[in-house]
């Protein structure tokens, strides 16, 4: 067995099927197994997991706790069940979006003999599965941590649901962590960095679900305070545990981060979520002899509201505006010719346009304009995003669309479960049908044999004599 996929679950019934389906979709040149452990969920999770385990008994092994053990104890215990050379981790509310994820990471590690641990880039999604940030590492939504010192200083993440780790190393490290840790992955990452280097695959293979009320993103101030206090205690513990580390490097990392916070706090504005994630408005130009390309672009930081001057290169016939790389929603988007103070109308968009509002449900939102008749040397792009960060805002349409999407996703979840049950029943029916056909064949073989025929004739003869 090459890889053991381990999925831990506690009350992730809304999403666990997404995770399991993504495991089953993996295309590899080697065998792998799926191990799912439910930590005494009180929702529909156990039923969903059992349904998949019944339908795929040759590849899925399921384990169920009768009492909640917590994530750290659950992880350490279930890893003992792994039979693969490598362990791949994925939490029950995340899922993989690259069907070749395992194959790519195994190939990477086997080409990198000094590394026993791999991670990949990933996308952030909200609770309903909507992408809020594509390629989080590449777009610097969060820093890519590569050393023990940076991990200790920044309390960063390598995205556990993307991990592929050699089994023996994972089992060794599991024995070194505090089973009552507030965040098991923080301790695991620190220990892994002490043992091996990290091999990074730049492909986004996984999504990380940002639940509105998780342990790390709770709105309860007291819970958040306790969490940070316990993480601080873990940092101090590891300073003492490994005194030979390069703490000068960790200190310089903290100084740089502290300066970044001071600069941000000194500015009298609240950056939008999109701007904080480093999203950009990208302008592409096309002419008679050249199409849109990366060779000729203009970039601007995406804000909640902005007015941008776009200088047109000579011979520009079409303008393509990419409003970030993620799904996004705009109250207004206007491209104005300042010479005549007139608005240009788009010739194409991959989103939904309602008057001046644009709704982009997919990544890479685009609007294309024809500029052949424009004589001005520049155009003005004006846009205003819907304020989705303010829970008190009156963006009612966006709220309705989000609720409708969430409801549709819940219905899809139920349909998937029904489909799995149907497949299991169909499989059982086919088995019974095959057994019945075999019984009929054996029965006919007996009743038409010479021995059976002679016996039947004697019985009939005796009946007539009576």
UniProtKB/TrEMBL annotation:
Residues 4-115 form the Glycosyltransferase 2-like domain. CDD domains: Glyco_tranf_GTA_type (cd00761). InterPro entries: Glyco_trans_2-like, Nucleotide-diphossugar_trans. Pfam families: Glycos_transf_2 (PF00535). It comes from the Bacteria. Keywords: Transferase. GO terms for molecular function: hexosyltransferase activity. This is Glycosyltransferase family 2 protein. It comes from Streptococcus chenjunshii. The lineage of its organism: Bacteria, Bacillati, Bacillota, Bacilli, Lactobacillales.
């Amino acid at each position: 067995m090459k890889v053991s996929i381990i999925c831990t679950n506690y009350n992730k019934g809304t999403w666990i099927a997404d995770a399991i389906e993504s495991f089953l979709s993996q295309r590899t040149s080697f065998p792998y197994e799926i191990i799912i452990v439910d930590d005494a969920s009180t929702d529909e999770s156990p039923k969903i997991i059992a349904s998949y385990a019944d339908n795929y008994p040759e590849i899925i092994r399921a384990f169920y706790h009768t009492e909640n053990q917590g994530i750290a104890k659950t992880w350490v215990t279930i890893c003992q069940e792994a039979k693969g050379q490598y362990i791949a981790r994925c939490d029950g509310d995340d899922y993989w979006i690259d069907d070749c994820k395992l194959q790519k990471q195994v190939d990477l590690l086997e080409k990198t003999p000094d590394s026993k641990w791999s991670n990949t880039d990933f996308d952030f999604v909200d609770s309903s599965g909507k992408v809020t940030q594509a390629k989080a590492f590449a777009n610097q939504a969060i820093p890519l941590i590569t050393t023990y010192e940076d991990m200790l200083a920044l309390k960063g993440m390598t995205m556990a649901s993307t991990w592929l780790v050699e089994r023996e190393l994972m089992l060794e490290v599991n024995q070194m962590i505090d089973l009552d840790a507030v965040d098991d992955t923080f301790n695991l990452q620190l220990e892994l960095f002490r043992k091996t280097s990290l091999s990074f695959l730049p492909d986004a293979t996984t999504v990380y679900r940002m639940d509105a009320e998780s342990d790390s993103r709770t709105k309860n101030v007291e819970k958040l305070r306790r969490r940070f206090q316990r993480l601080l205690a873990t940092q101090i513990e590891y300073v003492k545990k490994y005194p030979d580390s390069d703490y000068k490097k960790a200190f310089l990392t903290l100084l740089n981060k502290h300066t970044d916070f001071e600069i941000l706090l000194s500015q009298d504005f609240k950056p939008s979520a999109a701007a904080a994630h480093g999203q950009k408005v990208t302008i592409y130009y096309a002419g008679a002899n050249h199409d849109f390309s990366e060779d000729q672009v203009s970039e601007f930081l995406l804000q909640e509201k902005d007015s941008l001057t776009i200088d047109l290169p000579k011979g520009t016939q079409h303008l393509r505006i990419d409003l970030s790389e993620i799904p996004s929603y705009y109250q207004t988007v206007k491209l104005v010719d300042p010479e005549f103070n007139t608005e240009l109308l788009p010739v194409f968009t991959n989103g939904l346009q309602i008057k001046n509002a644009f709704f982009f449900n997919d990544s890479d939102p685009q609007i294309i304009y024809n500029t052949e008749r424009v004589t001005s040397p520049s155009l003005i792009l004006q846009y205003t995003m819907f304020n989705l960060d303010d829970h008190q805002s009156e963006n009612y349409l966006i709220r309705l669309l989000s609720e409708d999407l969430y409801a549709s996703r819940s219905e899809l979840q139920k349909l998937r479960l029904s489909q799995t049950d149907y497949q299991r029943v169909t499989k059982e029916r086919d088995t019974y049908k095959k057994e019945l056909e075999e019984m009929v064949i054996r029965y006919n073989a007996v009743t038409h044999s010479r021995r059976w025929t002679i016996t039947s004739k004697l019985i009939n003869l005796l009946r007539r004599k009576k």
